[in-house]
């Protein structure tokens, strides 16, 4: 059993001080962190409970019109909150698709974005590339839920549904440490995740996600969210799709379940969708083109067809009105 210190700091500054200690990790709802400690994936010296930090669960509009959600907001609140439903319904829909009601009530937005991937080799202590070894056990093994883009050295996909919607919304993540605050695009949060041996996000050990910001130009518009799962009950995405036609006409589309982070479709495809006037044939052609760079493994070829089907439906919705 791993022994660690439990800390519940009263302020953000105190939390950042606590996280600066070697081996300290942030604790959100604990729905991924605590099982990860039990599974031996992680042996922290301290867990720093950030759930009760002042303002950490606030949702509101900034002076620039952006919608700002604290990292401590529960996933269920993201799904239900009137401001999110009115202005960023795409994110609300993606949050509503997360796991079960219990997980949505427990999980926080920050924890959801920073959760580790679910590859069973990793979770069962196999010494793979992400777990002290030098190769990917899934590559020659069972990998039917794994990536089709940018695969390797790690072929796992990131499980976060909200991250896919946030990618389509051009959202930014505010990150804080004792050194100050920085802001990064959601895509930058997962940059290099397949090459990173120890984590999937580009956070330093002492950094904390404090909020997510959705820019004013991404609020409103026409949106589409769809998630395919294998089981009839709650499940991680085989493939998901978040799509948005903003009020200014710009189109953004992203896929989940296909890469080590949310996968943005090529800009040229988004621009062609934005230009409108698409018939069924041109939608088919664009869906093919969007998946042109896919390099599936033997067991993940089926995901290419699912992704194309989801994109076809998304494009039909975005161009219908
Ligand atoms: C059976 C099951 C099904 C699931 N299905 C889905 C699904 O369909 N879709 C989906 O999106 N997710 C799914 N999840 C994941 C679940 O939603 C996450 O476990 C949860 O969102 C994590 O949030 P948390 O607040 O509990 O994070 P925690 O468990 O507290 O933390 C997770 C990780 O993030 C770090 N962390 C926590 N807060 C922060 C922060 N503010 N800044 C930086 N790092 C932080 C922790 O140190 C830890 O490494 C599922 C999980 C399970 C167990
Ligand atoms: S996909 Fe990633 S986590 Fe899974 S076995 Fe390969 S290297 Fe390990």
Report on the structure:
The protein is an alpha+beta fold and 321 residues long. The chain has two domains: 56-217, Uridine Diphospho-n-acetylenolpyruvylglucosamine Reductase, domain 3 (2-Layer Sandwich); 220-320, Enolase-like, domain 1 (2-Layer Sandwich). The protein is built from 14 helices and twelve strands. The strands form three sheets. Strands 4-5-8-6-7 form a five-stranded antiparallel β-sheet. A hairpin with a 6-residue loop joins strand 11 and strand 12 (263-264). Helix 13 packs across helix 14. The longest helix is centred in the last third of the chain and has 20 residues, at 301-320. It is globular, with a radius of gyration of 19 Å. Residues 119, 121-122, 128-130, 136-138, 146, 154-156 line the site of iron/sulfur cluster.
Which secondary structure elements does this structure contain, and how are they paired or packed?
Elements: E1 5-7, H1 12-19, E2 24-27, H2 33-38, E3 46-49, E4 59-61, E5 67-70, H3 75-80, H4 82-87, H5 89-96, H6 101-106, H7 109-114, H8 120-123, H9 137-140, H10 162-168, E6 172-177, E7 180-185, H11 186-189, E8 208-214, E9 222-228, E10 239-245, E11 251-256, E12 263-264, H12 267-275, H13 280-290, H14 301-320
Parallel strand pairs: 1-3, 2-3
Antiparallel strand pairs: 4-5, 5-8, 6-7, 6-8, 9-10, 10-11, 11-12
Helix pairs in contact: 5-10, 13-14
The structure holds flavin-adenine dinucleotide (FAD) and iron/sulfur cluster.
